[in-house]
Design a protein that fits this description.
The complex is a heterodimer.
Chain A lengths: L19 E4 L5 E4 L4 H27 L3 H25 L5 H5 L2 E5 L7 H9 L1 H5 L5 H9 L6 H6 L1 E5 L23 H12 L6 H10 L1 H4 L6 H13 L3
Antiparallel strand pairs in A: 1-2, 3-4
Helix pairs in contact in A: 1-2, 2-4, 8-11
Chain B lengths: L2 H23 L5 H4 L2 H17 L4 H18 L6 H19 L1 H24 L10 H10 L18 H21 L6 H23 L3 H34 L6 H34 L6 H21 L9
Helix pairs in contact in B: 1-3, 1-4, 3-4, 5-11, 5-12, 6-9, 6-10, 8-9, 8-10, 8-11, 9-10, 10-11, 10-12
The chains are: A mainly alpha, B mainly alpha.
């Protein structure tokens, strides 16, 4: 069971973006990225279209079966209206087809996969999010919450997060390994390595500009600073 | 230890773990592979903590974090057998829950049944009162439905015979929809549940009073007495669950409103689980038994009374044993 009262996530260092930290029983922090209003609205629109088409096909096919078919169609209408979201979320790892297309997933506040009770709660309370028209309450609540929760999410204790995409291994720029001229703290180490790992995504002018900031503490001329930083990053990484 | 050494030492483990996670996510992992899952997962968490503490690069940490996240998702997945859980819930859990939440259930029942009986008595005494609540066309259609000369009763009576299926579907859609609305609107500080309980109580009461007053009582009461046991109780229970949500927001006690709401919602949604079962049974009875004209009204009253007793006995007595049914 997910713990029903979650303590506010411990924040070892404040994050600048909307990432949401959850401490697991194993003593590590999971970083979740809650999805905002627009992707969620798009996912909902896709699900709505799918449901509409599904019902259209059902009514046409079952309409041919006469009264029995119509009865069956009404039962299915009920299933699709109230249970489409719940069944997909529980059986498909928190993803309805719309959410899957947009790379979203529903999970509990503590990062565990969503279960029956929470999924049913968040989808039944959708009725209140829709009020007074066109999801007004849901949208207001979503825009107002740091983790973009609508009212149903607040009551059920669930989050809609982005699925993690596999990350490609960055190629460090060629440089000779160097030792830093002074002791580095952990965050400084990570800053050096981050600079080297992101070299590909920055323009050379920007790289030079950023590196020049460190020219003075590294005691090198500004034009050699970039090479120097890459070397220190190599040195921190170590040889295999 | 330098980062590259750390990486090259553990890379193979990470790759096997990642492959296992893929297999688990697709539901295709075999037993033998999973034996070491907990161990592998704990080791990964330890490696992630080490990597963070040693200030390794963001890329490595992010990669390990993703693996840990995926492992966490698989490790904490609930895979309890739903059937056994459901049976246990129906045999004992649900009535116990209803008794534990008796304050909300009682309040909702008083609101719903009180307004129903009160309005019924009022309309019976002052017949024209019904037109201030229900519009004349609806009243006329109600009168057609319960005309003692009709061969089939209830909504859809005019459609003639045979299509019990249509009615079953319609009742499920309509009644469960109402129950869900009554519950969900409780989130509006309980006001929505109050409204739906009173509104439905007044409407049903007015119609019942009116039909009794114009002499269609026999057909009407014999029609509703059977499934009413389940349907009306279920609406009262759904209202109770909604009131619990609202009350958690109004008087959260020592918790924050968010926490109080979350705790209340976890319990009330289980009430709704029971309500759904009740309404399925009500729809079944309404479509296949209540609408039959073969059975005499006396038989229907007897069966209906029996069902009311059954429901009350279930809610009050079931699950009191010392052993939890498993």
């Amino acid at each position: 069971m997910p713990s029903s009262i979650t303590t506010p996530p411990a924040v070892p260092h404040p994050v600048l973006d909307t990432r949401y930290q959850v401490e697991t029983p194993e003593g590590i922090d999971l970083l979740l990225r809650p999805a905002g209003l627009v992707p969620r609205a798009l996912a909902f629109a896709i699900d709505l279209t799918i449901r509409g088409l599904l019902l259209l096909v059902l009514f046409i096919v079952l309409g041919l079966l006469g009264q029995f078919g119509m009865g069956l169609a009404t039962v299915l209408l009920f299933l699709v209206t109230w249970w489409y979201m719940v069944l997909f979320e529980v059986f498909n790892q928190g993803r309805t087809p719309g959410k899957q297309l947009l790379g979203l997933r529903v999970i509990h506040d503590d990062g565990t996969p969503v279960g029956w009770a929470a999924s049913l709660t968040r989808n039944l309370l959708r009725f209140v999010d829709i009020l007074p028209f066109g999801y007004t309450l849901g949208i207001l609540s979503c825009l107002n919450h740091p983790a973009f929760k609508r009212l149903g999410d607040l009551a059920a204790g669930t989050l809609v997060v982005y699925r993690d995409l596999p990350i490609a291994r960055p190629v460090l720029p060629q440089a000779e390994s160097l030792r830093a001229p002074f002791a580095l703290s952990f965050s400084e180490q990570r800053a050096f390595q981050g600079f080297a790992e992101r070299a590909d995504s920055l323009s050379s002018a920007r790289r030079a500009e950023l590196a020049a900031i460190l020219a003075e503490p590294l005691q090198v001329p500004a034009e050699q600073a970039e090479q120097q930083i890459n070397g220190i990053a190599r040195g921190l990484l170590g040889s295999t | 230890m330098k980062q590259s050494l750390f990486e090259s030492r553990h890379q193979a483990d990470w790759q096997t773990f990642s492959a296992l996670l893929d297999a688990l996510a697709r539901g295709k992992a075999d037993r033998q592979q999973c034996k070491l899952f907990a161990h592998d997962y704990r080791r990964l968490c330890q490696q992630l903590a080490l990597a963070q503490a040693r200030g390794y690069s963001s890329h490595l940490i992010e990669q390990l974090q993703q693996l840990a996240m995926r492992g966490h998702q698989q490790f904490y997945r609930h895979r309890s057998p739903l059937g056994a859980q459901l049976i246990g819930f129906l045999l004992g859990g649900f009535p116990r829950l209803v008794r534990a939440e008796w304050r909300y259930v009682l309040a909702a029942s008083l609101l719903f049944f009180g307004s129903l009986l009160g309005m019924g008595a009022l309309v019976y005494a002052f017949p024209e009162l019904i037109y201030s609540l229900v519009d004349p066309e609806q009243v006329a259609s109600m009168e057609r439905m319960y005309d003692p000369d009709a061969s089939r009763l209830g909504r859809f009576a005019e459609r003639g015979s045979g299509d019990d299926w249509v009615m079953f579907g319609y009742y499920i859609m309509n009644n469960i929809g109402i129950a869900f609305q009554t519950f969900a609107s409780g989130l509006l500080f309980g006001l929505g549940s109050l409204f739906f309980l009173l509104f439905n109580g007044l409407m049903i009461g007015a119609v019942a009073g009116h039909l009794t007053q114009i002499g269609y009582g026999a057909t009407f009461w014999s029609f509703v007495v059977g499934h009413g046991a389940f349907e009306l109780t279920a609406i009262a229970l759904a209202g109770g669950a909604g009131l619990k949500l609202g009350w958690a927001l109004l008087a959260p006690g020592r918790l924050t409103r968010g926490d109080a709401l979350r705790l209340a919602a976890a319990r009330s949604v289980r009430l709704i689980g029971g309500v759904i079962v009740f309404l399925l049974m009500a729809a079944f009875i309404e479509a296949y038994w209540s609408s039959m004209t073969l059975a005499s009204p006396t038989l229907k009253y007897l069966v209906g009374g029996g069902l009311w007793l059954l429901v009350l006995a279930y809610l009050l007595l079931a699950g009191r044993g010392t052993h939890a049914p498993d």
